[in-house]
Amino acid sequence: MAGEIAYKRVLLKLSGEALMGAKGYGLDLAAVERIGAEIGAVHAMGVELCLVIGGGNIFRGVSAAAAGIERTSADYIGMLATVMNAIAVQSILERQGLHTRVQSAIPMATVCEPYIRRRAMRHMEKGRIVIFAAGTGNPFFSTDTAAALRAVEMGCDALLKGTQVDGVYSADPRKDPAARRHEELSYHDVLALDLRVMDGSAVALARDNALPILVFSIQHPGSFADIVANKGTFTRIHKGAAT
Fold it and tell me: Count of domains in the chain?
């Protein structure tokens, strides 16, 4: 099946909310297992995989800062939430027989490896799935930016963002039935139109390194495997695309 893939090495960015399922907080085991099965199917295709998972299902740094917690402290708490999610997803993947490593930008040797670029690349070359946790290790940077950074550092062919909808729309399709889905966008379009599919720092980093961003729905069974085979429904963000 390896001959069917369009991308040999990819980074999948998931929001913490994707792990909540129907719950309003924390982890929904059924949702995590379903996403784990999607990841396992892509790994079986021969794709080298790494992941970045947000922490919004447990703690949102920006919201907490607005509520009164000092911003730097709030962001560090949010980074710790991403480590919790990473370890949970690791457990589910390994229960499926997959080999994984969690690497944290904030060293915590008791529970996971520190982030070391060459070691992470070697893990993927050996067929292990690497889950990058704790964002960039710095406050004021989102997990979107961490995903773009790690994808560039790992030499990924594409950054895939799994969302709740099947691409980038002109408006929220869940609220506006007239919203139009974009097949392709340029990095400039995303920034100029303030589409907010990813934060500006992440998009700019992808642009500067010619890293394609593919936005798709992680909620549709089989969608992740379709994307790496260049099939299915998604929005491609890359250089020179037209709206």
Answer: 1
**How far lies 201's CA from each of 116, 143, 196, in Å?**
22, 11, 11
pTM over 0.90: yes
User: Each residue of 113-145: b (16+ CB within 10 Å) or e?
Assistant: bebeeeebbebbeeebbbbbbbbbbebebbbbb
What Å distances lie between residue 205 and 23, 43, 141, 209, 234, CA to CA? 33, 26, 12, 6, 21
Bridge partners for 113 per DSSP: 103
Tens digits of residue pLDDT in 181-230: 999 999 999 999 889 899 999 999 999 999 999 999 999 999 999 999 99
Residue 91 lies in a domain: yes
Within the chain, residue ranges assigned H as helices are 29-44, 61-67, 71-95, 117-125, 143-153, 187-192, 200-208, 223-228
The sign of the dihedral angle between the CA atoms of 221, 163, 214, 209 is negative
Q: Is residue 32 situated within a structural domain?
A: yes
Q: How far is CA 60 from the centre of its chain?
A: 16
- Is residue 243 a part of any domain in this protein? no
pLDDT band with cut points at 50, 70 and 90 for residue 3: very low
- Domain residue limits at 35: 2-238
CATH number at residue 45: 3.40.1160.10
DSSP for residue 115: P
Residue 50 lies in a domain: yes
Q: If DSSP codes are grouped into helix, strand and coil, which group holds residue 111?
A: coil
